[in-house]
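User: Okay, second chain of the day. Same drill as before: sequence in, structure tokens out.
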Amino acid sequence: MALVRQEWRSFWLGFGITMFVLITGLGLLKVDYEGRKLSFGDDTPVAKVERTAYGTELKVKAFGRKGTWDVTGLDRAWEFICDFGCIPHE
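Assistant: Same drill. Structure tokens below.
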């Protein structure tokens, strides 16, 4: 019985730490977005997916940095999942 209780305690500790990091990260992104909007009038979203003729790009603008990543494979996988599950999408 003590072993089962220890396993659950480990699970809840890991879950709690994960939730703390996730919520803190999302909060930091929200503060960054709102600060840019109030200070500079920049209301572009933190992350944006753009489909181009060459593929799909994820553009991220956060904490004073800009980054672009090619997510064409993930976009194709998402399209397949939506088509397979008959989920409406663009």
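Residues 56 and 75 are 7 Å apart (CA to CA).

User: Thanks, on to the next one.
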